[in-house]
Amino acid sequence: MQSGRLDLPFHPDTRLMMCAVADLAAFVAIAFDQPDKFIGCSFDVASDEMTMRDIASTFTRVMGRPVAFTGDPAGLDVLAEMDADLAGIFRFEIFERGFRAFLPGLRALHPGLSRLEEYLRQKGWANR
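The line above is the sequence of NmrA domain protein; the predicted structure tokens follow.
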């Protein structure tokens, strides 16, 4: 990111769901506080969803300097040569299965879910 590039092995319009660790912890706490409601339930958790271009734009706003998305899905082939397991996870989670978190429902359950921009500012990325 410091070089002004977001270089991930995805198409620029790939939508990525992400979750701050604090938000994941909040859902765990909610489940423990309300076990009757959550025992036997399974659902994907996320706190934001953005395209690669949107993520780069968010970094641009927060860092106060240009950040461009420069990734290419062909990069998965390069990644597979270095780490086949990690490349397989990317392929499965992003391109085949995809995350299926229902953000409106998650926000109703935990209204304080972090958006990427808020998260970056809290973690000290502003004007880096």
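Note on the example: Residues 16 and 60 are 18 Å apart (CA to CA). The first helix runs from residue 21 to 33.
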